[in-house]
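Example complex used in Figure S2.
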Amino acid sequence: MVGVDLLRHLRFFVAVAEHRHFGHAAIALGMTQPPVSQGVQRLERRLGQRLFDRDARAVRLTEAGAALLPAARQLLQDADDLLARAQRWRPTSQVRLGLAEDLEDLVPTLLQALTADGWDCAPTVAGTVELVDGVRDGELDAAVVRHPAVVDGLRAGEVHRLPTYVAGAPPDPRDAPPMIVPPRRHHPAAHDQMVDALHRLGHSGTVIEAETMAERRAWAAAGHGVRLVLDPAQGRPVEDLPPLRVRVVTPLPADRRPGVDHDALVARLEESLP
Amino acid sequence: MSREDPVAELDRLATEAGVLAWVHARRLGPEPDAVDLDGDASVPMASLYKLPLAGCWSDLVAAGALDPTERVRLTATDRTPGPTGVSALLDDVEVSQRDAVRLMLTLSDNASAERLLDLVGADRLNGWLAARGAAATVVRRGTRASWRAVVTETGGGDLAEAPVRLADTDRDVETSEYDATLASATTAADLVTVLAAVWGEEHHGFVRDSLRLQAWRHRIGSGFPHDDVGIYAKTGTLGRLRHEAAVVEFPGEDPVAVAVLTKSARPETFQPRVDTAIGAMARVAVTALRRARV
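Predicted assembly (568 residues):
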């Protein structure tokens, strides 16, 4: 109980230090000012140090406050990390699977295929850079990511070329409006490769970066551009349109989470990808 | 931001460019200081072996063991092929040793480099590197043997096909030239050590002048688009590897040696964005170390 209070009061301390104002800190914390002031006072008693100099005009960190602030921030960060880790933790019977966000409609298809085979999957749908980091940090057991990506230090499978179709473009690609795509930071190398391929086709290479499939659909619906889609029913084929290249990545055997049959998982994913 | 934490900025630039990067920069002067991102990791060096080769040759000349004006004959039939310099010519060529060094450094001429490596000897070159504190660098083979390995490992056939196969966008094409334990390999820190050696002694003036005359400025040079800033540089390129080591000299400041080694996710031969990112990384590392000459 005391420990939980400590974290809560440290959060007040950091907020006040950042805002230099109790009222503003309270707003940022979604609270009223009195409990924030009381919390900081109780923290000062607990630590045996005065953290702030207060006068009518301003709140300033004391020397002790400035010295203790980094440790407070670190403790809060560690607490957040603990909570995030607890949330992500899964029993080994459950596989933590990453899927590139731009697989779009293929995401549910892949998960349905795995689930039908008896796999218990906890999916993460994100950009490729984030997923590759997740596999590298041991937070994911496998991921289907865009190719090319920096995958050194991981086991990477064969490259699958998924044909793409243009949803809503006029017949001549040189007249094509901007391409609505996921953000470049999700996969810088694959993004640049796609833009180069568009240039080669005579397209302006102008893109609109939108975070989610829903957002990309919204921008297309609003008439700002066209999308590359994987479902032939949703678009038209255009000759030499760049395919979506994807591959399955897993940790190297020595880094794999015990109890997960990575090889079987990879085999099933490879089989499910077109 | 870049001044406060250049390493985090280097990391960000590498991710942003879709490359793995190894960077080391050191101020050459009375109070050396360094910026480092995995600068001690062993990386295959491609044409960067030509840099220590020039330094070693220059020391052998200073010691009287080699004659810089001695003629070397690079015949059309048996010289090492390549895209530039004498390698790109059609007929027999005869140049002095020092002109061969100049062609090797300014144009990365493979034919000249191969002959100079024969003259100097890989063992002597590796001994020279170790004696100068660049012991993690080892020159295992010249350009001819490197490309022979690439051709064999990627499916045989003509030399001209090998780079095309390395650039396959639909699969990872592996070669021992990407493997630091099999190819000639170096570290970013070692390359800086080699540059410092070449900067440390008067008799390397010819090598320094040659580095300043390098024909291209698309990598590290792109980070310093200033006519009065001296860039003394050597590139190295093979498949997904794009490297450069340089001394950057702002007027009135201590020179800064910097090495940026990269391996790109993309396999394509021409990647101007990566070349530009190498310039940006060099600028971040060098900027953190700039200081007026005392």
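The beta strands of chain B are 19-27, 34-37, 43-44, 71-74, 93-96, 185-186, 230-238, 241-249, 256-264. The CA atoms of residues 112 and 268 of chain B lie 27 Å apart.
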